[in-house]
Specification:
- With 603 residues, the chain is α+β, with helices and mostly antiparallel strands.
- Strands 1, 2, 3, 4, 7, 8, 9, 10 and 17 form a 9-stranded mixed sheet that branches.
- Strand 3, helix 1 and strand 4 form a beta-alpha-beta unit.
Length: 603
């Protein structure tokens, strides 16, 4: 072993005499996997607690999926509607999640969100303000009051840029373009203990063993595994879920995937790209091909500002019943709003349609259709600490479960990454500080290296076509509307893809090691797809984002969470009861009356 500039290098050869098994070693107190909003907020928190922190991202910093969150971030500040408070935010989140979110997790979110937003402002986040200098708040679907802070329609990018600047100010290192293939977990003494991760540089292939006292997993969701998705290529492929499952964690609510009502339908290269809910928040109207403003049939009180699951199902139904456009979409029209308002409040959407379709949205309607948008399920974590069932392993952001239940309110995801990123980073730091000794396992590290060696071989299959096959399976059999027969058929087809994935051709070249990254993306897609389908089969009812044509009713006895874990390397499904509401929040739920949305929209 050689020691060089604070880093350890191992020059071991594998059994075939190649140098592909060489790896370098980097050591830190807290390792953060994922350079999006949750990961960066965790890194800041751990650093401020006194730890040496290292962040790994598989994309270039400033380009994490967080940048695509457009509409805003929720916090019950009451700057526009003074009646708002954390209890109203709780009721909206819990009730619209169809009562299967974790009450304590939701309570922590809504209580802490205002402080996290104000903190961002103090760090320079350019949120819109009213004439009196207070933060402006716009209305989002299914919210009782206006509580969504925003920066035009590029809020996610504004938040990520602010966090990156803060991380750079604190001199926390970020390693870009590094793919994590496995979490390092020791199982001695009958306990699972995470002591780092193995990753490789996507360009050079250089492998690194990241040794750490604790790990925060913040690597996103799995919505790219649907054919029409708001995620970009090679992100949100379920790799976080795969890492967690293989480490010994449990997943919950995997069947609860939010289909955003409005994604682009053309051109093909942009199919599924998000059209922010802020368009409807600023007065956009949904119209079918025969000119009907049809939301009055599905939710006459809230219309376009109903919950995302209801609007998505309405859009899907209009298209399926023949009232869609020639591109299998519906029309979203905001041309009745003054152009100056559109340019001020929706600049990104205006530019997006002008550049892609030469469409001026102030003069004509957009074509939209449902698109896979957000993973509401994921790793099971403790509400207070966001620790997983594995010692030293914490998780935050879209890869976790607990907040959203069966339907996510727009604006809650950006609040979630800040609130629980901070908590996960702080708790991971505390775990590190309390350690008396560090665990290292050469055999566990070697297994991770062997996995990469086994994957880096010639084969008969290509990852991209198999990924496309997974996306088609999920769209056709586990999409907006599902059935037992379709789900079983989808699972059978998926198992064929799983078998074929063992023979994928991976040949590093002068263009880098993207083949290896794609092969691992494929494995993450398959594992997360399997967990989603198995959970969807088990939930024999319709609830929120999970709609089954053969079980159309929402059943009181099904107000539970479906949990997936690996048993003898096979996924097994079990039921888990939802924690009861404390009396204070039970009373808040009982006292709730939904007010009219009149007067709160720019129409």
């Amino acid at each position: 072993m050689k020691h060089r500039s604070g880093q350890l290098f191992s020059e071991q050869k594998n059994g075939r005499g190649s140098m592909v098994g060489n790896y370098r070693t980097r050591i830190c107190n807290v390792l953060v996997i994922g350079s999006g909003g949750a990961g960066l907020r965790a890194a800041i928190s751990a650093h401020n607690s006194g730890c040496e922190v290292l962040v790994i991202g598989k994309r270039i910093r400033n380009d994490a999926h967080t940048t695509l969150a457009s509409g805003g971030i929720n916090a019950a500040l009451g700057t526009v509607d003074p009646q708002d408070n954390w209890k109203h935010h709780f009721v909206d989140t819990y009730q619209e999640g169809y009562n299967i979110g974790d009450p304590r997790t939701v309570e922590i979110l809504v209580k802490d969100a205002p402080a996290r937003v104000e903190e961002l402002v103090s760090w320079g986040a350019p949120f819109a303000k009213n004439s009196d200098g207070k933060l402006d708040q716009r209305y989002f679907g299914a919210h009782t009051y206006r509580r969504t802070c925003y920066a035009g329609d590029y809020t996610g990018r504004a938040i990520l840029n602010t966090l990156v600047s803060k991380v750079e100010e604190l001199q926390i290192p970020i390693i870009d373009m590094t793919y994590v293939s496995r979490l390092l977990v020791d199982t001695q003494n009958g306990q699972r203990r995470c002591f780092g991760a193995v990753g490789f540089d996507i360009n050079s292939g250089q492998r690194t063993v990241f040794l750490s006292d604790s790990v925060v997993l913040a690597a996103g969701g799995h919505t790219r595994i649907w054919r029409r998705s708001s995620s970009r290529r090679d992100e949100n492929t379920g790799d976080a879920m795969r890492l967690a499952l293989n480490a010994g964690c449990r997943l919950a609510d995997m069947e609860m995937v939010q289909f955003h009502p409005t994604g682009m339908v053309h051109p093909e290269s942009l199919s599924g790209t998000l059209v922010t809910e802020a368009v409807r928040g600023e007065g956009g109207r949904l119209i079918n091909s025969v000119g009907e403003r049809y939301m009055e049939k599905y939710d006459p009180l809230r219309m376009e500002l109903s919950t995302r699951d209801r609007v998505a199902l309405a859009n899907y139904t209009e298209i399926q019943e023949g009232r869609g456009t020639e591109n299998n979409g519906v029309l979203l029209d905001i041309s009745h709003v003054e152009k100056g308002v559109i340019l001020e409040k929706l600049p990104r959407m205006y530019r997006q349609f002008m550049e892609s379709q030469m469409l001026d949205i102030s003069k004509g309607p957009m074509e939209v259709a449902p698109t896979a948008h957000y993973s509401m399920g994921g790793v099971v974590v403790d509400p207070e600490t966001h620790s997983t069932g594995v010692m030293g392993l914490y998780a935050a952001g879209e890869c976790t479960s607990g907040v959203h239940g069966a339907n996510r309110l727009g604006g809650n995801s950006l609040a979630e990454i800040l609130v629980f990123g901070k908590i996960a980073g702080s708790e991971a730091s505390k775990f590190s500080s309390d350690l008396d000794f560090q665990i290292r396992s050469r055999s566990v590290i070697q297994e991770a290296m062997d996995e990469l060696d086994d994957l880096t071989t010639e084969g008969e299959q290509l990852a991209r076509p198999l990924q496309r096959a997974v996306r088609n399976i999920m769209w056709n059999h586990c999409g907006v509307m599902r059935s037992g027969k379709g789900l079983e058929e989808g699972l059978k087809e998926l198992m064929k893809i799983k078998e074929a994935s063992s023979d994928v051709d991976v040949r590093p070249s002068a263009e880098g090691f993207s083949d290896l990254a794609l092969a691992l993306d494929l494995l993450g897609s398959i594992d997360s797809a399997e967990a989603t389908i198995r959970s969807a089969i088990a939930r024999k009812e319709s609830r929120g984002a999970h709609q089954r044509s053969d079980f159309p009713e929402t059943l009181k006895e099904e107000a539970v969470n479906y949990v997936i874990e690996l048993v003898m390397e096979e996924q097994v499904v079990a039921k888990s009861s939802v924690a009861p509401l404390p009396e204070e929040l039970l009373n808040a739920m009982d006292e709730y009356e939904r007010p009219s949305v009149d007067g709160r929209l720019l129409e």
